[in-house]
Write a structure and sequence with these properties.
Length: 827
């Protein structure tokens, strides 16, 4: 079976056609026989009774002659539809062959690019990093071009399929009309259903109707749908007149509502095909400016919402596939709004946004392309008016003078009052339920992320009515747009998703004062989804989405938000984790629920760590170095997260002691949820013991680095470092000691072996164990011999246990450094 299909049983249709043909022929023969009988009897039978019977027989023959052609017409109509099905299937077969060919062409192009890449890299000198980067970049570009070409080709095929199916739907509708016209006496669907269920329904015509329903499927129910379409058209005509006669009482508005059948597809088609869009726009104006009371405005809002919901479902082929709405209705609607807004005030955009938001379902019901177009138009209008007005334009000014309430419930849920109305907020609330439309809105004309637009949305808007509620709508759209997580090179939704995340983190990380606190939960959700995927979002604000890769796809063996600038991320999380302060210490705090923002994000880290941990410990042969590296990375990630929480708590007014205590409690809570639940009992041999040591190292190292027994503030100040930076530098030293205690520094590289081979340069050893290295580093100026001996050992042997990073790099990175030179490494 190919990618495109239709589900039509041609055999049943052929059977129905044959049945109708046979019935038509039989009735033709029978009518002739009945009509000729009185003449054949002649004078052999006379009298009053004979005259009456002969007259009835002649009438029956004439009636039967009228019936017969109708069955022939029905058979011909079915034959026409069968031909349309064959034509559609032929088109689909061609589309499926093209689909397979286009995908193969894309695969071939990528394979050629890979071959060229491998050939180029193979010819480079060792250490030719620039050449390697150029080859990688060329490969990425080739992949992107192949993906773009494939996407456009597949879009064309999708359009062809939609056209073919639309033509078939038109043929099906024509079949329905023909069958309805061929019915001698219309039999209600419920009567037919009763007959099929064994009810007492007699007569030839109902039997024929039953045969037609059996052959064509219960879905046709043509008389019912025709009636629904007619009801919809009548309701639209009534509404068009109704809108011109306002204002209206609540009872009048309810009576109009009672005529709507929102869930009936045929009704929606009849209603929207005959709806005058200008009547809807006028009703919206009355709801905002002419209602008799706030309660009356809300009743108007119920009518607007009902029509909006029909418009949303009517725009979407998934919900309006059988009876499509006239193709120009949605253009006419938007034009009607523009025509009424003669002063270009923004009323048109606001009313369109109101309908978009009120009609949107969850999951989304609006057509994604239409929602995207409306969003882009609204953004363009706002930016133009903001520029023309010198920054004084606001949406709320449009509605001043009416009742200070938004008519629709959906708008009231996010807008405190009409004076703070915000068309873009209404649009983005709708986009938050549609990942496709959300992401497409944030892309530029070339299909890449529109960073300029993102920065405008983050901090360049002055037209919004309420920054507090805008943050929630913006966060919802960003969350929807970045919900694509997984492998994907440039040009894919996953790639664009990661790009949006890195841009968001950088912008709010460098503009923490512009961060809206109502985005907290959305930001945590975004980062949770992208603990693994955002590693390819690039480091810092400049440059394309990139990362360490061999094939251009997203990797999963990463547990930190590694390619996000660490300083930016820290600044952002200090804002986000402020929510946790109020969860613990606010007016309505519930301390039993812990620190929800921190706990969710940390739990996501733990889940990623667990995946990598199981992969490493289950590998054959077992790779000790990878497990050690994983322990370092996870410990460092946990260090950084808890430090951000601690700083956020301080920023909200907690004392240093309280912040330390709260952060430690949160850290312990997360460890209990995550790392401690690894299935250690299922890991035998060295993997099991090393796994346990790795977990201990993470827990001890993170706790020691974040909550040290020593007072390092003076040392940090003396070196011009923050306490956080200073503690990060100590982290590698903690791990050297912990790895040694766990037996991971064994053999010729162990410190004990070093002491035996270099007894005069082993002053950092005491009773076969290394001294406390964190303490040694903190007091190295007072203990230069011990420190220099340790440096000698470390540079000669010890660093092999820490992924061959030299000591300077260890100190600079600290597994998570604030040094911009290394901010993209993550470990």
């Amino acid at each position: 079976m190919g990618h495109f299909t239709i589900d039509v049983d041609v055999d049943q249709l052929a059977s129905a056609q044959s049945g109708f043909t046979t019935l038509g022929q039989h009735l033709t023969t029978h009518s002739e026989q009945v009509s000729s009988t009185p003449g054949e009897i002649g004078t052999a039978w006379t009298g009053t009774a004979a005259t009456a019977v002969k007259s009835e027989m002649t009438g029956l023959g004439d009636k039967t002659k009228q019936f017969a052609p109708k069955f022939t017409e029905a058979a011909e109509a079915i034959g026409t539809f069968v031909t349309a099905v064959h034509t559609c299937q032929s088109t689909i077969d061609t589309l499926n062959r093209q689909w397979d060919q286009y995908n193969q062409d894309c695969t071939d192009a990528i394979n050629r690019a890979k071959t060229q890449h491998d050939t180029t890299v193979g010819g480079l000198d060792d250490g030719d990093t620039a050449g390697k980067q150029t080859a990688d970049s060329d490969l990425g570009v080739a992949r992107g071009r192949a993906a773009d070409a494939l996407r456009y080709q597949l879009q064309g095929l999708q359009y062809g399929y939609t056209e073919a199916v639309s033509t078939l739907r038109t043929a099906a509708k024509a079949l329905g009309d023909a069958l309805e016209g061929a019915v001698v006496l219309a039999v209600p669907d419920e009567t037919v259903r009763d007959y099929k269920a064994g009810g007492d329904v007699s007569g030839l015509l109902s039997s024929l109707r039953r045969a037609g329903v059996d052959a064509l499927g219960d879905e046709l129910h043509l008389p019912h749908d025709k009636q629904s379409q007619a009801d919809g058209a009548d309701a639209a005509e009534a509404f068009n007149d109704f809108a011109d006669t306002g204002p209206h009482t609540d009872a009048e508005l309810q009576a109009m509502l009672d005529r709507f059948h929102i869930s009936d597809e045929a009704f929606r088609q009849g209603f929207l095909d005959d709806l005058d869009p200008q009547a809807l726009v006028f009703l919206q104006r009355v709801a905002h400016m002419g209602a008799s009371s706030e309660g009356n405005a809300k009743k108007y809002g119920e009518v607007i919402t009902a029509i909006s919901q029909m418009m949303a479902q009517g725009s979407n082929v998934a919900t309006q596939g059988t009876y499509p709405v006239r193709h120009d209705f949605y253009d006419d609607w938007q034009q009607a709004a523009q025509d009424m807004d003669v002063t270009d005030s923004g009323e048109a955009e606001l009313f369109i946004a109101e309908v978009l938001q009120a009609g949107q379902g969850d999951p989304a019901t609006w057509d994604s392309a239409l929602a995207t177009q409306i969003a882009r138009d609204t953004i363009a209008f706002e930016r133009r008016k903001t520029e023309e007005s010198g920054g004084t334009f606001t949406w709320g000014d449009i509605l001043r003078g009416g009742y200070d309430v938004m008519p629709t419930q959906a708008a009231r849920d996010i807008t405190p009052n009409a004076g703070q109305a915000d068309a873009l907020q209404l649009v983005f609330d709708a986009l938050g339920k549609d990942p496709v439309a959300a992401q497409d809105t944030l892309l530029d004309s070339d299909g890449g992320v529109d960073h300029d637009l993102l920065h405008y949305l983050y901090g360049g808007r002055s037209a919004g009515g309420n920054a507090y509620t805008w943050g929630d709508a913006l966060g919802g759209t960003l969350e929807a747009a970045t919900s694509y997580v997984g492998p994907g090179g440039e040009g894919t939704r996953n790639y664009d998703s990661a790009d949006i995340v890195q841009d968001m983190v950088h912008w709010y990380g460098t503009h923490p004062d512009r961060y809206p606190i109502t985005m907290d939960q959305h930001v945590v959700d975004i980062l949770s989804h992208h603990i693994q995927a955002v590693n390819y979002a690039g480091s810092g604000a400049e440059g394309p989405v990139s990362g360490n890769h061999a094939d251009g796809l997203l990797e999963y063996q990463r547990i930190a938000l590694a390619n996000l600038d660490k300083g930016d991320l820290a600044n952002l999380l200090k804002n986000v984790f402020g929510e946790d302060y109020y969860a613990q210490h606010g007016e309505h705090a519930d301390p039993s629920k812990g620190f929800p923002m921190y706990q969710q994000l940390s739990a996501a880290q733990q889940a990623a760590f667990r995946r990598d941990f199981l992969e490493i410990t289950g590998a054959d042969p077992f790779d000790q170095g990878r497990l050690e590296a994983l322990a370092h990375q996870q410990g460092s990630a946990q260090n950084d997260m808890a430090l951000n929480l601690r700083d956020a708590l301080k920023a909200q007014g907690a004392s240093a002691d309280q912040a330390d205590a709260d952060a430690k409690a949160a850290f312990d809570f997360v460890l209990g949820l995550g790392i401690d639940q690894l299935p250690m009992d299922k890991l035998g041999g060295p993997a099991g013991s090393l796994g346990g040591a790795a977990i201990d190292a993470i827990k001890d190292g993170a706790l020691n680095a974040i909550f040290p027994d020593h007072d390092y503030e003076g040392q940090a100040n003396s070196e011009g470092l923050s306490v956080q930076e200073y503690l990060r530098r100590l982290t590698p030293l903690q791990y050297v000691g912990q790895l040694e205690e766990a037996g991971m520094l064994d053999g010729p590289n162990s410190p004990d072996a070093w002491a035996q081979a270099h007894p005069d340069e082993a002053s950092f050893m005491r009773d076969g164990q290394m001294v406390d290295l964190a303490d040694l580093y903190a007091h190295r100026a007072d203990r230069p011999d011990q420190w220099n001996d340790f440096l000698y050992y470390y540079q000669e042997h010890g660093q092999s246990a820490l992924n061959d990073l030299d000591l300077t790099e260890q100190f600079e990175l600290g597994f998570l450094t604030s040094d911009d030179t290394h901010s993209g490494s993550g470990g």
